[in-house]
Amino acid sequence: MSKLYKNFIFTFFIFINITFISNYPIFPTILTLSIPISDDNSASQSRVENSFVRWLQASGADLISIHPWSKYEEIDFLLTKVNGILLQGNPDKIDINSPYYTIVKYLYKKTIELNNSGIKMPLIAFGDDLSLLCTIISEDNISINTEMDYRIDVPTNLKLFYTPDKTIILNEFEKEDMKSLEKEYILANNLIRYISVKEYLKDFHLSQKFNLIATSKTRDGREYISIIEGKKYPIIMVSFHPEFIVFETCKYFIIPETLKAIYTSRFIGNSFVFYGRKNVNHTFTVEEKEKYGYIDPYGPPPKLYYGVYNYIFENENSQ
Q1: Using CA atoms, how far apart are residues 85 and 69, in angstroms rounded to an integer?
Q2: How many domains does the chain have?
Q3: Domain membership of residue 196 as a residue range
Q4: Is residue 7 predicted with pLDDT exceeding 50?
């Protein structure tokens, strides 16, 4: 093999690797919507739970925040820079007229638009935001349990329908970790509001657009959805909070600490961030992140709010 040919092969190899790295961000930036602090979902103060920051950081991603008072122009700009969207789960009452609901609806719409245009933009939603998105997707045909239910002994293990070949996000890591969902109790603070399996199956918009990944039952035997994932779009909704399993120390919740539960938490986080690396958006520079709601895990420490550590944001325009 001639020296010239060897040099060509080496140069081509380097070019391919640089192209791969530039198109697949090593450290994706995930966009989240902060949760209103006031009971009426007003846009004066909001928060981002520290457990989400650490959970994403453990999977190699940064977190940047928008707020219920954020303007659509700013959101549109950030969606050209970020590599995924995370919805934490708003624990307050579901109000379709609230700023939070409006932004969730807008983010879902933009997720569909971006993926249709060829930009791989994954979205993951937890807890009550599963219920919010289900009402949006079903065009308000779904009825949900609107009363808060913090009976932490209610949820049971999940019944799993997981098949890697029928998923978009969760198929990236074909491990045995998902099976631990059926083997033990891992559902930290799982049942607050829920969508019943019957409601899911009878609603054309949901059942035709989303695969049922897992269900669970209440103590009196009612079955509800716990994980669903889009058939066409990289959207996954989880009724429980996997980030709690690894990064929440609040004693109010029963949080499993077994190795299998941790595997499941990491499986979901790693799968989501891994898919986000396929996004062609380039990651932020440090200077760009500081202009917006970048949450620096090494910056000012979070504050204790109702027993959980949060980063607190103030709406300067409301004062």
Answers
A1: 17
A2: 1
A3: 50-310
A4: no
Kindly give the pairing relationship between strand 303-305 and strand 308-314: antiparallel
Q: pLDDT by residue (tens digit) across 49-66?
A: 999 999 999 999 999 999
Helix, coil or strand: residue 193? coil
Strand partners, 123: 85, 235
How many whole angstroms separate alpha carbon 309 and alpha carbon 42? Answer: 21
Q: What is the DSSP letter of 157?
A: P
Q: What is the mean pLDDT of residues 101-129?
A: 93
Token couple for 308: 């959980």
In angstroms, rounded to a whole number, what is the distance separating the alpha carbons of residues 67 and 44?
10
**CB atoms near residue 146 (< 10 Å):** 9
Record the pTM.
Answer: 0.85
Quickly list H helices, 24-168: 50-58, 72-78, 99-116, 128-137
CA pair distance 60, 207, nearest whole angstrom: 33
Per-residue DSSP letters for 256-307? --SHHHHHHHHHHHHHHHHHHTT--SPPPPHHHHHHTEE--TTSSPPEEETT
- In this structure, is residue 228 part of a structural domain? yes
Would you state the pLDDT for residue 8?
A: 43
